[in-house]
Fold this sequence. Notes:
alpha+beta, two-stranded antiparallel sheet
Amino acid sequence: MAVPEMRASTLAARALCLEPRYTRVPCVGGTEGEALVPLFSKAVEYYDFAKHNAELMTHSVRTAQMATSRCSGVCAKAADLSEAHAVAGLVTKVAHALLCKDVPRVTGFVETDPSHVISPARYIANTVELGGGGIARNFGLPKMNDPETTLLNLALNDLCEKQKMTLRWHHKFCSSSGRLDACQFQFFTPKSDERFDDCAYATI
Length: 204
């Protein structure tokens, strides 16, 4: 989640005429597409973007990966460097946690805590606290405004459907092949299939 958070925080900072280090926009829900919900209401304290502006920035963050994949030349290099910068920041926080020099908070895609949110999706991205042994504390979802709550409800339904689709495909694949090695190694062998259903029978 380091990359979408960096993009969302940078957008918010530009809109507010601030340096990116002074803003932080946590992202919750899923990791991409319609399931990704940037919480622009958390960018700076005591300030909330207009609904229209927040929707435009949310759309920009959700489609950024697709836009950068179509770039070439200098733009593509800039996109790669920005992603590397975001990942480097995350690695630094993890290193600080392992060395017990800091107790950083990051956004992680973790199992849903029923005491924090009743969700149809088993896993969800929210703020967690890192410690020397990994995730030390799961803070759950923060307080959100009404538009963000609506987006999150849609995101959770999207996550739930994708999870069901993945489980159905995995069950179909494993039950269709009696060879254990096929179940173990099929995912590591790149192949092209004309239809989605063909994936389940590719090794038979």
